[in-house]
From TrEMBL:
<feature type="region of interest" description="Disordered">
    <location>
        <begin position="1"/>
        <end position="34"/>
    </location>
</feature>
<feature type="compositionally biased region" description="Basic residues">
    <location>
        <begin position="22"/>
        <end position="31"/>
    </location>
</feature>
<keyword id="KW-0813">Transport</keyword>
<dbReference type="InterPro" id="IPR035906">
    <property type="entry name" value="MetI-like_sf"/>
</dbReference>
<feature type="transmembrane region" description="Helical">
    <location>
        <begin position="122"/>
        <end position="143"/>
    </location>
</feature>
<dbReference type="GO" id="GO:0005886">
    <property type="term" value="C:plasma membrane"/>
</dbReference>
<dbReference type="Pfam" id="PF00528">
    <property type="entry name" value="BPD_transp_1"/>
</dbReference>
<dbReference type="GO" id="GO:0055085">
    <property type="term" value="P:transmembrane transport"/>
</dbReference>
<feature type="transmembrane region" description="Helical">
    <location>
        <begin position="291"/>
        <end position="310"/>
    </location>
</feature>
<dbReference type="InterPro" id="IPR000515">
    <property type="entry name" value="MetI-like"/>
</dbReference>
<feature type="transmembrane region" description="Helical">
    <location>
        <begin position="233"/>
        <end position="258"/>
    </location>
</feature>
<keyword id="KW-0812">Transmembrane</keyword>
<protein>
    <submittedName>
        <fullName>Carbohydrate ABC transporter membrane protein 2, CUT1 family</fullName>
    </submittedName>
</protein>
<feature type="domain" description="ABC transmembrane type-1">
    <location>
        <begin position="118"/>
        <end position="310"/>
    </location>
</feature>
<keyword id="KW-1133">Transmembrane helix</keyword>
<keyword id="KW-1003">Cell membrane</keyword>
<feature type="transmembrane region" description="Helical">
    <location>
        <begin position="53"/>
        <end position="76"/>
    </location>
</feature>
Length: 325
């Protein structure tokens, strides 16, 4: 008969069973958890009554201060046009007009011919917007989905233009518009002098390409199986789901053309074809100060309207395509 040696249990009386091992683990002293917060105020302090009061006071002060810093210049401009020239130049300044009057706005509209200037600028901005969408969307779609030969080289050359200061290429661009290579056309005093440079925007192509890269390839392949051509896929599939980024490109294009000053001053010397920024600057020395301020308010209204129309697409379009899931 063989001798069987039974090893004693080390648990000091606790049977060597799963329940016993669990009880041994529970008896072991646990190390204290050292919770560290990398913030100026810990969440425990914020949960107190004093912490909540301080938090809301700081939040309100910061929000009100930043809002006032951005809104106050607009408020000063709008109310300044309602004052007389003497009240506008008074020291100390008055925050409210002594007599609310819209005469400054009416004089600005009549004396500066803002109707013609705004019409010209709307023509330039609208044409630049349409041509930009046609050219940049097609280029971005080709680089993203069609992937032609040397596509990466073309994209790199487009992005390299963003590293060049605009003033450096001002003279070559002017000479190109004055006499278009090969064709020999003179585009000065024509809307094409504004439209063509606006459409040649590498930043817009980059934004659109990043968004198109996030579109699933399977979606386009399903359209190809149904017999859709690349142009049909772009028009019926890609553009409808690209509204956020198209809104961003639209607002950037319209605002850039509307507020541009140096380039329209070079290529639109005719007074009948001036944009609103050039027209106001050319007549500013002959106008009373309150009328000048009123003209600036009227000229800024269209860009504000465009912003409110496309504001919900701005953040959605800028962040679209940054993550793929």
């Amino acid at each position: 008969m063989s001798n069987i040696t039974v090893m004693p249990d080390r648990s000091a009386g606790t049977p060597a069973t799963p329940a016993g091992r669990e009880r041994r683990r529970q008896r072991r002293p646990r190390k204290p958890i050292n919770t560290q917060f990398r913030t100026a105020v810990s969440p425990h302090q914020l949960n107190t009554t004093r912490g909540r009061i301080i938090y809301w006071i700081v939040l309100v002060i910061v929000v009100v201060s930043f809002t006032a810093a951005f809104v106050f210049p607009l408020y000063w401009m709008v109310t300044g046009a309602m004052k007389s020239t003497e009240e506008l130049n008074a020291i100390p300044p008055t925050f409210l007009p002594s007599h609310f009057s819209l005469d400054g706005y009416l004089e600005a509209w009549d004396l500066l011919g803002l109707g013609t200037l705004l019409g010209n600028t709307a023509l330039y901005a609208g044409g630049a917007w349409l041509l930009t969408l046609a050219v940049d969307v097609s280029a971005a779609y080709a680089l993203s989905k069609l992937r032609p030969a040397l596509g990466k080289v073309v994209l790199a050359l487009m992005l390299s233009t963003l590293m060049i200061p605009p003033m450096v290429i001002m003279l070559p661009a002017y000479l190109t518009v004055k006499e278009v290579p090969i064709f020999g056309w003179n585009l000065l005093n024509t809307p094409w002098a504004i439209w063509l440079p606006a459409a040649a925007n590498g930043f817009n192509v980059f934004l659109l390409k990043r968004f198109f890269d996030s579109i699933p390839r399977e979606l386009l392949e399903a359209a190809e199986i149904d017999g859709a051509s690349p142009g049909r896929i772009l028009w019926s599939v890609v553009i409808p789901i690209s509204r956020p980024i198209l809104g961003v490109v639209s607002i950037l294009t319209v605002v850039n053309v509307w507020r541009d000053f140096v380039w329209p001053l070079l290529v639109l010397p005719d007074s009948d074809k001036m944009s609103v920024s050039i027209g106001i600057a050319s007549l500013s020395s002959q106008m009373p100060q309150n009328v000048l301020v009123a003209s600036l308010v009227i000229a800024s209204i269209p860009t504000i309207v465009v912003f409110f129309l496309f504001q919900r697409h701005i953040m959605a379009g800028l962040t679209a395509g940054s993550l793929k899931g």
